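User: Let's play a game. I give you a shape written as tokens, and you guess the letters that built it. Ready? Here's round one.
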């Protein structure tokens, strides 16, 4: 299917992003404007934009180790001049770790390596990734179901950093770098004022904003909305998102930016309103929902993150980690609590049976609680592990988000393995 036709079908919700990923997997160039292209290889890697200037190419992002060579080859099929500057829109590896391939090409051709520009916090992020390398490897492996995953660290650091905004004039091209916080605290979006082209980085990703990841550092839902509003005021004609296809036309771009901002503003507003009345995390989590009309938009589907995870993130941003339940301030050891409940119920097997019944009735949230107590009370019981696995499989089936499914699946696999021990 031609790219334009596929875009229309994505925009109308007739096809899913998986189909687009399939279509671009060989490395596809989108002509954004004169002397500007964006290269796509898969939804799961940040796209790379190349801008041709009289001083050489400017790249926005770099892709990652398994897509960078393909991306660079696509760029080289379009322009062979040296890469003058690379902008990291943020420090996530699917935007920065392709720099190695870019540097290797420069070295092999005896050209200078490009200058790298990014927000100051990209440096801090890279330091943090070194400090928490083992943990990052574990959680990234869990999120994307990769065994023995090793988080790539050691990307080349930015040569120049900025704090709020930075204006660049490179070979006749004017670029405005603007900092905002959203998915990360180190984000940049790039505005080309004369062309009315906006490269949003991961502020726009063709799914519900990813501001609630259960295993990553604090994210910034409220400021994400502020950044989207700022982009909307620029009135771009063309929007290059961090992930997914380029959006052409002022009306569609404005709609996409506005809908994302409104959905986030709703979650933040509702969460804060309840918190300001003294609600606990439990009350907030079960009360605040995104209106269904937003979740039905093809670019706000909760397929990656889950709005409920965002609510938690918003709560913790303002409230710290305590959830308002006195039992969780200084909790008992989980295994002790589980044993006590099993004793009350007449044994861990009774808990497991009840968990299975609840799951059968579709009450998977409750079922997971009870199954985990059964498992903790009798960790060596293969039969209980089999029930736990079944309960978790039902819970996974009920989740729409990759993160919801992936983090439950970690324990489903654990139960499956232990049921055979
Ligand atoms: Zn990304």
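Assistant: Ready! My guess for every position:
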């Amino acid at each position: 299917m031609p790219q334009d036709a596929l875009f229309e079908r994505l925009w109308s919700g007739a096809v899913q992003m998986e189909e687009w990923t399939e279509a671009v997997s060989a490395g596809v160039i989108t002509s954004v404007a004169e002397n500007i292209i964006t290269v796509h290889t898969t939804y799961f890697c940040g796209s790379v934009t190349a801008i041709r200037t009289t001083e050489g190419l400017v790249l926005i992002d770099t892709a990652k180790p398994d897509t960078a060579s393909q991306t660079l080859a696509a760029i080289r099929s379009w322009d062979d001049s040296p890469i003058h500057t690379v902008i990291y829109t943020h420090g996530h590896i699917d935007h920065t770790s392709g720099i190695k391939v870019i540097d290797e090409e420069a070295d092999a051709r005896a050209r200078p390596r490009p200058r790298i520009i990014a927000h100051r916090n990209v440096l801090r992020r890279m330091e943090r990734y070194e400090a928490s390398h083992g943990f990052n490897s574990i959680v990234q492996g869990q999120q994307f179901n990769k065994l023995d995953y090793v988080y790539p660290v050691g990307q080349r650091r930015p040569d120049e950093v900025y704090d709020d905004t930075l204006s660049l004039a490179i070979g006749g091209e004017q670029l405005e770098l603007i900092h905002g916080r959203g998915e990360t605290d180190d984000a940049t979006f790039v505005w080309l004022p004369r062309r009315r082209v906006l490269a949003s980085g991961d502020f726009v990703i063709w799914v519900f904003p990813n501001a609630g990841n259960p295993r990553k550092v604090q994210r910034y839902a409220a400021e994400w909305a502020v950044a989207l509003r700022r982009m909307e005021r620029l009135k771009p004609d063309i929007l290059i998102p961090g992930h997914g296809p380029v959006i052409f036309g002022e009306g569609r771009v404005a709609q996409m930016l506005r809908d994302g901002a409104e959905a986030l503003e709703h979650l933040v507003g509702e969460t804060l309103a309840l918190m300001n009345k003294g609600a606990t995390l439990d009350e907030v989590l079960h009360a605040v929902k995104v209106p269904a009309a937003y979740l039905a938009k093809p670019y706000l589907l909760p397929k990656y993150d889950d709005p409920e995870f965002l609510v938690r993130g918003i709560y913790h941003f303002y409230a710290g980690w305590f959830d308002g339940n006195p039992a969780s301030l200084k909790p008992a050891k989980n295994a002790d609590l589980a044993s006590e409940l099993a004793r009350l119920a007449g044994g861990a097997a009774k808990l497991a049976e009840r968990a299975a019944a609840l799951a059968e009735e579709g009450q998977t949230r409750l079922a997971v609680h009870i199954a985990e107590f059964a498992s903790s009370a009798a960790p060596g019981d293969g039969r209980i592990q089999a029930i736990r696995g079944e309960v978790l499989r039902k819970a996974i089936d009920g989740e729409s988000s990759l993160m919801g499914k992936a983090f439950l699946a970690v324990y489903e696999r654990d139960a499956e393995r232990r049921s055979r021990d």
